[in-house]
Amino acid sequence: MSPMAAFGDGASVLRAILFDLDDTLIPEAAAIRGALAAACGPLEELAGLPNGVLGEAVAAVGQASWQALDVTGIDARFGVTWEECLWGRFGPASQAQIPTLGALAVMLRRQVFTDALTACGVRSPLGGELEARFAMERRKRFVPYAEAPGLIQSLRDRALLVGCATNGASEVQREKLAASGTGGWFDAVTVSAEEGVGKPDPAMIVKLCEELGVSADQAIYVGNSRRRDVAASRAAGIPSVLIERFEPEDEIPNPGARGARKGVANPHEVPDRMVFEVHGILGFVDGWRAGRAFRVVDGGRTPWSIDLPEPVDGRFVTRVGADDDPLRPLVTGSSPLAAIEAGLRSLRARGNGRAFRHELGEPIDWDALLR
Ligand SMILES: [Mg+2]
After folding, report:
1. Quick one: which of 174, 305, 336, 368 is 20 to 30 A from 110 by CA?
2. Closest of 225, 199, 268, 237 to residue 29, by C-alpha
3. Which residues are in coiled coils (predicted)?
4. Domain range for 86
């Protein structure tokens, strides 16, 4: 699906915004890093280990142990991660949905914390203590991204439905939703283990649309993973927005967005739009609703837009400029995308380049365009 197709002919009515949960509305990778550091710190100090060494050992042993176990089905089918197995509670729902998961998690966490201590040369029976500390610290970090509550409120103000399709074990994802308060944000939620299969299979997104009473052309899907989120929403026929969030502490893109700038070979993983923080989707939403190909919202300034190009005498014509400007100039191109590109050049020429960095999309080579 091209970005143009994603905007359709302007006839469809946008009714619902669907979200991924982990690393989209609530931090997952950063919460794990934080919990590991907090749980391991006192033991590192006690054992005279350099700061962070034990946490790194837990991560290394955890990954290796997970790969050594036969978890292809659980990992690939449901998107349950080894980190979640270190702290999650797997009760009756998980037992019914993924029968081997509970026993597997118990085995994994016993092994991981003990082996990590051993790997650091600490001969002590503190594996159980470390396990308990990590679970406690992880549970202190069910906190949404700071901008997320305001975004949800903005979507509500626009009378949009809000849904969530999240990969993982039922009890783990439900605990995150409840403890973070995000559960109350959604009109409907689907969890991969409860549906029998997770993203990139589109089934749980299709089910979410059914529960919300919207069709695929009335929704957009927002997530942080090309492989899981973008692929699933494309398979469901729903335009996708990829969040390429930069973690302030390490200044590298989150793992789900790796390779985002290089041009991605797999066409199923190319999003219709990219944003750098979740609030950026408001520009996408407003542009869609206004029948615009592109909308730039920059702080308190008047939004700038590029209209959906229209065919005129074998070329495509669009208007570009501030929404309150009655004389927004026309630009043309040989194709709809060429017209949009011409519009972006025109915006940039007027010094508005910084703003639309927040609205990068593909497959247009924006970086080349903006150079
Ligand atoms: Mg995610």
Report:
1. 174
2. 225
3. none
4. 29-139
